[in-house]
C-alpha cells in the first residue's frame, strides 16, 4: 500500500467488500489525499489509494447497492477493480464525484449554462448552472464559487413554467422546497440532468409533463412548509448571517421560530429567506472564542453560521423549541460533527454492528491515550438520545446488547482516577459528558446508575471536577447529562427506576447546594443562559408535575426549601429576555407556591412585591397587544404568575386596590365567563390538563376539543408555554402512572387562585362608562405611565444600593 502523508478522513461510509474469499465489513473513507478502507473492529488500515491512482468509482449495473472502484496497481500500469456495496450508494457516488477532478482519469467535462435565479425578494439574479455527473450546481458569475448544489439524489421533480419563457423549477425531496431558474437552454439542461442521474447514479429525476405557473411557485416556494401555519413565528431574534458564499458581508436576518420550523426573514421586508423544519436540526455549535457566534448543524450536513447578542439565550430557545417538536437528539457542543468519523450520512440510522464496534473501541480505550478519539467517534455515530440498538432481542441466537454498555460503564468506574481534567481540553471533557449521556440514555445505562457498584460515585466525581473548572460549556454538558438520569430518554421505561435515580441525585444535599449556588450566581449576574436552562430542566424533573410524582416526598420538600432560600435568584429570571428561561422559572415558581408550606408561598409572594416582579408582570399582562405575537407568550406567563402571587395575598391585593378602581376589580369575583376569543381562554393551561389527565388515567376530553378549535398562532403559543418533555411524552407518561408498581407522590395544591382572572383581563381592555367605573384609553395610559415610572425608580434605587 502506498502511504498517504497527512491524509485526513473527510467523509466515511460503512460498506461491505465483496471478494472471492467472502464478504467483509469495511469503513470506506474519502480523505484529503486519497481513499482509505479500514477494519471497523480495530480501525486498522486494509487498503489505501491516492486519488491520482484511482481511475473511477462507479455504480455497478447489477445491484441497487453495489459499486466498484478501479485503481492502478503499485508501480505498474495494470488496473485492478474491487467491488463493494452500501445502502447509501447514491450518497457515496455523489461524494466520489466531488473528488473526481483529482482522479487518474477525467471522466467528464461539466456543462455550464448562463441562467437567472429567482431570488427570495422576487428579482431575477444572473447565475451560471453547472451540470455535473452527480448534481446541478449554481455558480457565482463573478467569483465562480459554488453557491448551491442540488444533488440528483435529493431532487424530487422538475417542472416547466408555462408563463415564463425558459423557466423551470427544481423541487427537492423531504421538504418540497422549490428553486426557480430561467435559461434559454432549458430543454438541454433537463435532458442532461435526466441522462446523468440515470447513467451515474441510477436515480430518477422526474421531469413533469404538466407545466405550472409562476404564481404556483410563489405560493409553494417553501414546499410543504409554505402555509402560514408553519411560518407564523412565536419567537424572533435579530442576528447576522456569516460565512455564506452568497454575500461578501454579513447580512442582517430575523431568526424566527415557529412551532415546526426555523425561519430566516429579511428584517426590512419581512420576506421569508429560508425555512427549515425543526426536526432536521442535529446540533448547535457554540463558539468558545466568539461569544456572539453559533452554528446550526442540520442532518443533511449543512451548516448555517450566525452572530447575535444574547447568543446563549438564542441557543436555549432553540433547544427548547427543537426538543418540543420531538427531536430529542439536538444538543449544544463546541465542535462540529466530524463526517470523517461517522460511518454514514448524518440523517441515517446506523446499523447495530456500527454501535457494537464503537462500544468495543470505547471500552478498550478508557483511560488510554486514544480515549479522546474513541469518545469522539462514539459520539459521532450514536444519537444524543441514546443507542438505537441497546435492547437484547428475543430469540435463540440473540446478541446480548446490554452487556457492552455495562462493560463501558464498568471501565469508567475502574479508570475514573485516571481522568485528569487538568490535562484534558474543554472539548474533550464536554465530549466525555456527552458520551456518558448517550450511555445512560439507554434503558440498561439508566438502570446501571443505581444498580452498578461505584457508578454513581464515579459520575458524581466527574461532574464535580467539571463544575470546578468554572466553564459555562462544561457546566451545561454536565447538568444536561444529569437530566438524562432524572428523566428517562428511552421508551418502555420503569418509573421505579426513575424514582431510585432521583433519590440518589436529590439525596445529596451538599451537591444540590453546590449546583444551586452556581445557578444562583448565573441568575443574579444575568449570564449563563444555557446553564440556567439546564438547571431549570433539572429542577422541573424534580419539582414540576407530572415528573414530580416520582420524586420522594422528603427529597421534594428538601429541594423546595433550598429553592426558597434562593428566591431572589428565581425572581431574577422573570426579567430575562429569553422566554424559555421565564417559562422554566414560572413552572418552578408555580410548584413552590402551590406545593410549599404556607410560609414558603407567603415568602415568594412578598418577594414578588419587594423585587417589583408583580409590577413588571402587570405591565406586560395589561399592555401587550394581541398583534405583538413574539410577546404574547410572555403575556400568558405573566398572567399565570399574577394569579399565583395574589392568591390569598393581603398586601398584594391592597396594592391592586391602590392601582385600579374598585369597579374593575369587581370582575375578579364575577361568575361570568370571558369570550372564547380572549387570550386566556384561547390558550389552554397545559399543566392543569396534565393533572386532569393523570387523575383520570385517560385522554382529557377538553384537550381533544381544544386541539380542534385553537387557531394557528394560538396553537403555536400554547406549545411554547410548557416544558419540552411534556410536549412530546405526556400521554405515554400517564399510561406509565397507571401501570407502575411504585408509590407516587401525590401533588398538593395548597394555594389556589379563586378569582376570575380571565374575565378581569378581558374587561381591562374594554371601555366602561358605569356609575362605579369610568375606564378608557386615557385611564389605561395613565396606569401604564405610572407603572413605568415606578419600575424605573425601583431599578435606579437598586443600582445605587
Task: Describe, in plain words, how this protein is organized in 3D.
The chain is an alpha+beta fold and 801 residues long. Among the domains are: 94 residues, Pleckstrin-homology domain (PH domain)/Phosphotyrosine-binding domain (PTB) (PH-domain like, Roll); 110 residues, Pleckstrin-homology domain (PH domain)/Phosphotyrosine-binding domain (PTB) (PH-domain like, Roll), CATH 2.30.29; 74 residues, PH-domain like; 135 residues, no CATH class. The chain is built from 30 helices and 25 strands. α15 runs parallel beside α18. It is globular, with a radius of gyration of 30 Å.
Topology:
Blueprint: E1 9-19, E2 22-31, E3 34-38, E4 45-50, E5 54-59, E6 66-72, E7 79-85, H1 89-98, E8 111-118, E9 124-131, E10 135-139, E11 146-151, E12 155-160, E13 167-172, E14 178-182, H2 186-201, E15 206-207, H3 214-220, H4 228-231, E16 235-242, E17 252-257, E18 261-265, E19 272-277, E20 281-286, E21 293-298, E22 303-307, H5 311-324, E23 332-333, H6 352-365, H7 371-381, H8 402-415, H9 426-440, H10 443-451, H11 455-467, H12 472-486, H13 495-506, H14 509-525, H15 529-543, H16 553-565, H17 567-572, H18 579-595, H19 598-610, H20 613-623, H21 629-645, H22 650-659, H23 662-665, H24 679-682, H25 686-696, H26 701-709, H27 712-719, H28 724-739, H29 757-764, E24 768-770, E25 773-775, H30 777-800
Parallel strand pairs: 12-15, 20-23
Antiparallel strand pairs: 1-2, 1-7, 2-3, 3-4, 5-6, 6-7, 8-9, 8-14, 9-10, 10-11, 12-13, 13-14, 16-17, 16-22, 17-18, 18-19, 20-21, 21-22, 24-25
Amino acid at each position: 500500500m502506498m502511504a498517504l502523508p497527512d491524509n485526513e478522513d473527510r467523509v466515511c461510509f460503512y460498506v461491505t467488500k465483496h471478494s472471492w474469499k467472502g464478504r467483509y465489513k469495511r469503513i470506506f473513507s474519502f480523505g484529503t489525499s486519497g481513499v482509505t478502507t479500514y477494519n471497523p473492529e480495530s480501525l486498522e488500515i486494509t487498503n489505501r489509494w491516492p486519488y491520482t491512482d484511482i481511475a473511477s468509482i462507479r455504480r455497478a449495473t447489477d445491484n441497487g447497492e453495489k459499486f466498484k472502484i478501479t485503481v492502478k496497481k503499485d508501480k505498474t500500469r495494470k488496473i485492478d477493480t474491487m467491488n463493494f456495496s452500501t445502502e447509501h450508494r447514491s450518497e457515496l457516488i455523489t461524494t466520489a464525484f466531488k473528488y473526481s477532478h483529482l482522479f487518474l482519469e477525467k471522466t467528464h467535462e461539466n456543462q455550464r449554462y448562463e441562467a437567472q435565479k429567482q431570488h427570495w425578494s422576487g428579482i431575477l439574479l444572473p447565475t451560471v448552472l453547472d451540470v455535473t455527473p452527480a448534481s446541478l450546481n449554481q455558480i457565482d458569475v463573478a467569483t465562480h464559487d459554488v453557491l448551491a448544489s442540488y444533488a440528483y439524489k435529493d431532487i424530487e421533480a422538475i417542472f416547466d413554467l408555462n408563463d415564463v419563457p425558459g423557466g423551470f423549477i427544481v423541487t427537492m425531496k423531504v421538504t418540497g422546497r422549490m428553486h426557480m431558474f430561467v435559461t434559454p437552454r432549458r430543454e438541454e439542461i433537463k435532458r442532461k440532468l435526466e441522462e446523468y442521474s440515470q447513467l451515474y447514479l441510477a436515480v430518477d429525476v422526474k421531469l413533469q409533463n404538466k407545466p405550472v405557473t409562476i404564481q404556483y411557485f410563489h405560493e409553494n416556494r417553501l414546499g410543504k412548509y409554505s402555509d402560514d401555519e408553519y411560518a407564523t413565528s412565536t419567537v424572533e431574534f435579530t442576528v447576522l448571517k456569516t460565512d455564506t458564499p452568497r454575500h461578501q458581508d454579513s447580512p442582517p436576518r430575523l431568526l424566527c421560530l415557529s412551532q415546526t420550523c426555523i425561519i430566516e426573514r429579511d428584517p426590512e421586508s419581512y420576506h421569508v429567506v429560508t425555512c427549515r423544519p425543526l426536526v432536521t436540526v442535529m446540533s448547535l455549535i457554540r463558539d468558545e472564542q466568539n461569544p456572539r457566534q453559533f452554528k446550526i448543524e442540520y442532518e443533511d450536513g449543512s451548516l448555517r453560521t450566525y452572530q447575535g447578542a444574547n447568543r446563549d439565550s438564542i441557543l436555549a430557545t432553540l433547544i427548547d423549541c427543537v426538543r418540543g417538536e420531538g427531536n430529542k437528539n439536538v444538543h449544544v457542543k463546541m465542535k462540529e460533527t466530524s463526517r470523517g468519523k461517522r460511518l454514514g450520512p448524518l440523517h441515517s440510522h446506523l446499523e447495530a454492528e456500527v454501535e457494537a464496534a464503537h462500544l468495543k473501541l470505547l471500552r478498550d480505550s478508557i483511560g488510554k491515550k486514544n480515549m479522546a478519539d474513541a469518545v469522539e467517534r462514539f459520539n459521532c455515530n450514536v444519537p444524543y438520545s441514546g443507542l438505537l440498538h441497546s435492547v437484547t432481542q428475543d430469540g435463540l441466537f440473540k446478541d446480548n446488547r446490554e452487556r457492552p454498555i455495562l462493560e463501558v460503564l464498568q471501565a469508567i468506574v475502574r479508570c475514573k482516577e485516571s481522568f485528569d481534567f487538568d490535562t484534558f481540553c474543554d472539548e474533550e471533557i464536554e465530549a466525555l459528558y456527552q458520551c456518558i449521556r448517550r450511555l445512560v440514555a439507554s434503558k440498561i445505562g439508566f438502570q446501571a446508575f443505581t444498580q452498578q457498584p461505584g457508578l454513581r460515585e464515579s459520575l458524581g466525581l466527574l461532574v464535580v471536577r467539571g463544575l470546578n473548572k468554572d466553564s459555562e460549556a462544561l457546566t451545561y454538558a454536565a447538568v444536561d447529562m444529569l437530566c438524562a438520569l432524572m428523566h428517562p430518554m428511552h421508551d418502555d421505561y420503569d418509573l421505579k427506576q426513575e424514582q431510585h435515580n432521583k433519590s440518589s441525585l436529590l439525596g445529596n444535599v451538599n451537591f444540590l447546594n453546590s449546583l444551586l449556588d452556581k445557578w444562583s450566581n448565573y441568575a443574579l449576574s444575568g449570564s449563563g443562559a444555557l446553564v440556567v436552562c439546564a438547571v431549570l430542566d433539572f429542577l422541573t424533573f424534580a419539582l414540576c408535575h407530572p415528573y414530580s410524582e416520582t420524586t420522594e416526598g422528603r427529597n421534594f420538600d428538601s429541594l423546595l426549601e433550598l429553592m426558597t432560600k434562593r428566591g431572589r435568584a428565581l425572581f431574577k429570571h422573570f426579567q430575562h429576555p429569553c422566554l424559555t428561561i421565564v417559562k422554566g422559572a414560572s413552572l418552578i415558581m408555580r410548584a413552590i407556591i402551590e406545593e410549599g408550606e404556607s410560609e414558603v408561598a407567603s415568602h415568594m409572594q412578598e418577594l414578588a412585591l419587594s423585587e417589583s416582579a408583580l409590577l413588571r408582570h402587570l405591565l406586560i399582562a395589561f399592555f401587550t397587544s394581541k398583534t405583538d405575537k413574539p410577546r404574547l407568550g410572555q403575556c400568558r406567563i405573566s398572567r399565570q404568575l399574577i394569579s399565583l402571587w395574589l392568591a390569598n395575598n393581603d398586601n398584594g391585593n391592597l396594592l391592586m386596590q391602590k392601582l385600579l378602581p374598585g369597579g374593575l376589580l369587581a370582575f375578579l369575583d364575577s361568575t361570568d365567563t370571558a369570550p372564547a376569543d380572549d387570550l386566556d381562554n384561547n390558550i389552554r393551561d397545559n399543566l392543569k390538563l396534565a393533572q386532569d389527565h393523570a387523575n383520570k388515567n385517560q385522554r382529557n376530553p377538553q384537550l381533544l376539543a381544544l386541539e380542534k378549535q385553537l387557531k394557528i398562532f394560538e396553537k403555536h403559543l400554547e406549545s411554547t408555554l410548557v416544558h419540552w418533555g411534556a410536549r412530546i411524552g405526556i400521554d405515554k407518561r400517564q399510561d406509565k402512572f397507571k401501570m407502575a408498581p411504585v408509590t407516587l407522590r401525590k401533588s398538593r395544591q395548597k394555594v389556589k387562585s379563586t378569582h376570575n382572572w380571565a374575565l378581569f383581563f378581558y374587561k381591562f381592555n374594554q371601555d366602561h362608562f358605569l356609575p362605579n367605573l369610568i375606564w378608557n384609553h386615557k385611564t389605561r395610559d395613565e396606569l401604564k405611565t405610572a407603572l413605568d415610572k415606578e419600575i424605573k425608580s425601583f431599578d435606579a434605587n437598586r443600582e445605587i444600593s
